[in-house]
Amino acid sequence: MISCTEFIPAYSEGFKFLEKKGGKKKVDEFWVYLSDLYLKGSLKKLVEEHGIEGCYIYWEKALNEEAADFKMTLDEKKGEFRIDMFKCPSKGMLLEMKHMKPYEAYCEHCPALYSRVMESMGYEFNMDLSQTDRAKCNLIVKEIKEDE
Amino acid sequence: MKVIERQASDNKYLHRDFHISMNMLMKYICDEFGPTALTEYLKQFAGEFHSINKECLKKGDLECLLKYFKNAYEKEEWPIDIQLCDDVLTISQKACPGITYLRNNGYEPVEQYIETYTTVYETMCKDTPYEYIMESFNSKTGACVQRFQRRSL
């Protein structure tokens, strides 16, 4: 059994395996596959139904279940959604597991999966991954105003 | 304006949707490279992830494996019957948490789902005095009886 609580190391090893088989290109292709298949019925559906608030609904559930250390802000007037991740549970777990080495580009799966969905619906998507060596990052989604 | 701030200690770590992502990863590997590649991947994962359990088995410490499984299933909030008796560890479950979650959410587990047990634990036991035996497995529910025991001479 691979418990859902053991998924993160399995995911990281999966990326390494794909890279060994077909280079980084294969990992990127998998992220596109996962984004299209998995986020279609969850994040995409919520944003289609609720607009930018759909991001808040999606990540509120996911980040609470993943026991993340975070601040999430939805400013509907500004049309902006933001996550400040103080300790990512996934990267945090990988950094703490001394007997395993995380996939080098592990954190890249987040922008790869989410930007594809959000940009396809006309939102601007940005992530700062400059502090992922400390399991920190941030994510910003913005509505693109027509007059901009 | 809506704001939410949480610390890791505010919540229990249990995101069952990861079973869905795991199944998708396995399906992708099978579709792209064939079922043998899935076995290869699971061997790689088990070799890394279970290296600590393998060391326990090498030392003949089945107690360590008992603790590992109890802890893993407790975190998953999944009932099992687990017994360590006469150097044999037996785990019985009425259903698999992954298969159950997938089916309850409209996903079909990959045909080779059993490999997340057999390949993973056979790899863990490799080069140790113990062997892994899957006594029975129901692919619809994941109900199974598993045994870790000393290799016969």
Task: Explain how this protein is built.
The complex is a heterodimer of chains A (148) and B (153). By secondary structure, chain A is α+β, with helices and mostly antiparallel strands. Chain A has a single domain (4-143), classed as Trafficking protein particle complex subunit 3 (Muramoyl-pentapeptide Carboxypeptidase, domain 2, 2-Layer Sandwich). Chain A has helices spanning 7-38, 40-50, 53-65, 89-96, 109-120; strands at residues 69-75, 80-87, 123-128, 137-143. In chain A, a hairpin with a 4-residue loop joins strand 1 and strand 2 (80-87). The mean pLDDT of chain A is 95. The N and C termini of chain B lie far apart (69 Å). The longest helix of chain B has 16 residues, at 18-33. Chain B has helices spanning 18-33, 35-49, 51-58, 62-75, 97-104, 115-125, and strands at residues 2-6, 81-85, 88-93, 130-137, 144-150. Chain B is 47% helix and 20% strand. Chain B has a single domain, classed as Muramoyl-pentapeptide Carboxypeptidase, domain 2, CATH 3.30.1380. Chains A and B meet through helix 1, helix 3 and strand 1 of A and strand 1, helix 1, helix 2, helix 4 and helix 5 of B. Strand 1 of chain A pairs antiparallel with strand 1 of chain B.
Annotate the secondary structure layout.
The complex is a heterodimer of chains A (148) and B (153).
Chain A: H1 7-38, H2 40-50, H3 53-65, E1 69-75, E2 80-87, H4 89-96, H5 109-120, E3 123-128, E4 137-143
Antiparallel strand pairs in A: 1-2, 2-4, 3-4
Helix pairs in contact in A: 1-5, 2-3
Chain B: E1 2-6, H1 18-33, H2 35-49, H3 51-58, H4 62-75, E2 81-85, E3 88-93, H5 97-104, H6 115-125, E4 130-137, E5 144-150
Antiparallel strand pairs in B: 2-3, 3-5, 4-5
